[in-house]
Amino acid sequence: MQETRLDTARIRAARRMIDPIFRDTPLYRCEALEPGLGCAVSIKLETANPVRSFKARGTEVVASLLAAGDSRAVVCASAGNLGQALAWSGRGRGLDVTVVASRFAPAAKLDRIRALGARLELVDGDFDLARERAAAVARYDGIRLVEDSLDIETCEGAATIGLELVDSAPSFDAVLIALGGGALATGVGHVVKACAPAVEVICVQPVGAPAMTRSWRQRRVVTTDSTDTIADGVAGRRPIPAVLDDLLLVADDAVLVQEASIIAGMRMLLHHAGLVVEPSAALGIAAILEDRDRFAGRHVVTIVCGSNVDVDAYHRWIGAAPVHGF
Fold first, then answer.
1. How many CB atoms lie within 10 A of CB 291?
2. In the beta sheet, which residues pair with residue 178?
């Protein structure tokens, strides 16, 4: 495999920096899902932890390194999950954490960031505007900016999921990974391709937030003017060039799925797996629903990456008319 920015030895070292509460998450075959999907499906569950997403794997690494140095203040932009994770990791290490987010982010995510003791600044725009504001705060205050996916610690923290996948038995044929900024996809993809190269790495993004997928397909950065998806956790408009370079080396495919399929995937995970998930976490199931023939007879792992969902919105989505019978 060609070299990405990631390093497998560093990823193994990063694993030792992560609180055990975020490691060795459940990985299990979910047979109840399989009749509706037509393939063997295993779930890697990244929601059973204090911040209910995979993001703390990266923020644990960031916060550990910061705590060992002179800087005690840090700022990030977040769609909600990274902010919670950085607040949790920073609180335990005495760091001063500022999170910049869109005021239109799910209220449950914003409330939890506050509850974890971070300073929360809201902007009247989307995630990419929050990124700009967080960078300005870092420059003005002279503090560390954590930029998800660009900062290698966020990718290598997420990559520890890949270590747990490739060490598992039985083996699997493909892994379906939610694609947003790219930390999860490049991290897990790097480890899978380094340690189990026959496994297909498939990234999944909503058709209403296609920037990274379009960039992967065209092998150059493609931006969009807006996003239109319920999957707020992956709704970026401006891919980071260095992250795209990594993704081009580890992803076998990048696919776009419809909103109806995301909702159908959320409904299936609730009814057949007993899991309440946010839309981004259902992208893998959505991809199978839209292309059953591709996955027929194969063993697929999907990473259920987050469950921080607005309760009222969730009930609206799940209570809507079923799609394709699910």
1. 14
2. 204
Element at 130 (helix H, strand E): helix 127-141
Any idea what DSSP says for residue 7? -
Tell me the H-state helices in 251-300. 259-273, 283-290, 292-295
Give me the phi and psi of 257, to 5 degrees please. -125, 155
pLDDT at 164: 97
Kindly tell me the burial class for residue 175, based on how many C-beta atoms sit within 10 Å of its own C-beta (0-12, 13-18, 19 or more).
buried
Q: DSSP class of residue 306?
A: B
Residue 42 CA to residue 203 CA, distance in Å, equals 16
Residues 177 and 184: beta-carbon distance below 8 Å: yes
Please report which residue ranges of 70-106 form alpha helices under DSSP H: 81-91
Provide the 3-class DSSP secondary structure of residue 206: strand
**123: helix, strand or coil:** strand
> What are the tens digits of pLDDT across the range 174-224?
999 999 999 999 999 999 999 999 999 999 999 999 999 999 999 999 999
pTM: 0.95
Residue 121's DSSP bridge partners are: 100
d(C-alpha 41, C-alpha 29), whole Å: 6
Residue 322 to residues 37, 207, 272, 274, 316, Cα–Cα distance (Å): 15, 20, 14, 17, 12
- The rounded distance, in Å, linking the Cα atoms of 158 and 188 is 7
Give me the residues of the chain with pLDDT under 70, please.
Answer: 1, 320-326
